[in-house]
Structure formats: structure tokens, C-alpha cells
Amino acid sequence: MNIITSNQQAAIDYAISAKLDYDKVKEHEYSALVNAAKCGEALIKVKEELPYGFFVNWIENNMPVSRKQCSKYIHLFENYPSLVKPASKVTLFSRDIDVLLELAKQPADVVSEATQSGKPVTRTTLYDAKNKVAMAKAKAINDAKSYEQIQKEQDALLAKVREDLRNWKESAYSNFERGNYSDLDTVLEHVPE
């Protein structure tokens, strides 16, 4: 028979409480994420109704958050409209609002790389996706430089051939004018290969 001391029972109670509180935090994070996307949708509608150039001033006078934060809300809605208007099956890429906001700022190739597994995106998978895309871009740039180097070498070779041909042409005309060659066949015999 195990007897649990009062200290052990208190620790167990705190652990259970911490887990329940953590679950509530995650639930509220998701709710905050949905509300942020809804705010983004509303901001887009306000912007569409205002004359050109008035939106920034409207944000500064009417929103309790910065223009940058409003931009994040808009970006969140534009990239994840299913948060506001859920389809029959919603796939949320991450339940971590910071990761989702960071994901929303990424270019399409990073988002595609980070979400291709269909599993929720974590900070680690987002970091890995950014690195993989950056490495692929660096390789493409390196390959392009290699291509450019090959092109430069071919251009230099072509310039050398043109220079040799020009020199030969000048020499041939000079020799022909001095009477060193009697006919065209003799000139052609001296064409460099």
C-alpha cells in the first residue's frame, strides 16, 4: 500500500493544475489567432472603404495597436483566411501564434517547404525550411555563376578567334597588295585552322 504524503499530494495537484492551465493557454492562443485574423479581415474592409492614402492615418487615430501590428493582422488573414471562414476541414499549420505569424511573413517557397508534411509547423521546422530554401537559392546562384563563368570563357575564346581572324585578314590583304599572292586559292591556303 502506497501512502502519499501531503507534500507529494500538493506536487501532484500543482502538476495537474499546471497541465490544465497550459491547455487553457493553448486554447486562448488559438482563439487569439482567430480573432487576429478577423481583425485583419476587418482592417482590409476599412482600407477598401477609405480614400487612397487615408488608411495609415485612420489606424493611428482609431486602433489601439501599432500600424505594424495591424499589418501583421492583415497578413495573417490574407495567408490564412480559413481561420475566419473555415472550410469543412481546416488545417492549421501551427497552434503557436508566434510561429504562425512568422510563417505568414515568409515567401511562398518557405511556406510550402515548412507545410509540405501536413504536420503542425514548429519553430524548428520553420527554421529548417528557411535554411533549406536558402541553401537551394544559394546553389542556384552558384550554378548561375558557374554558367556565367563558362559563358565568359566562351566569349573570351570567341574574341580570341575573332582577333586571330582579323589579324590573318589584315596580313592576307597586306600580302595580296604587295603581290605575295597571285590568286585567291593561294590566299585560302594560308587560312588558319
Tag the structure with descriptive keywords:
single chain; 193 residues; mainly alpha; 2 domains; elongated
Helix/strand layout:
Layout: H1 6-49, H2 55-62, H3 67-79, H4 97-105, H5 108-115, H6 123-177, H7 184-189
Sheet of most strands: none
Beta-strand content estimate? under 5%
Poorly predicted regions are 87-91
Count of spatially separate domains: 2
The radius of gyration over CA amounts to 35 Å
The class by helix and strand makeup works out as mainly alpha
Arithmetic mean of pLDDT: 76
- Global shape: elongated
Number of helices: 7
Number of E-state strands: 0
Spatial separation of the terminal alpha carbons: 102 Å
The arrangement of helices and strands along the chain is: HHHHHHH
Task: Describe, in plain words, how this protein is organized in 3D.
This protein is mainly α. The protein folds into two domains: about 5-105, no CATH class; about 110-193. It has helices at about 5-50, 55-60, 65-80, 95-105, 110-115, 125-175, 185-190. The longest helix is centred in the C-terminal third of the chain and has 55 residues, at about 125-175. It is elongated, with a radius of gyration of 35 Å. The model is unreliable at about 85-90 (pLDDT under 50).
Question: What's this model, at a glance?
Answer:
The protein is an all-alpha fold. The chain has helices at residues 6-49, 55-62, 67-79, 97-105, 108-115, 123-177, 184-189.
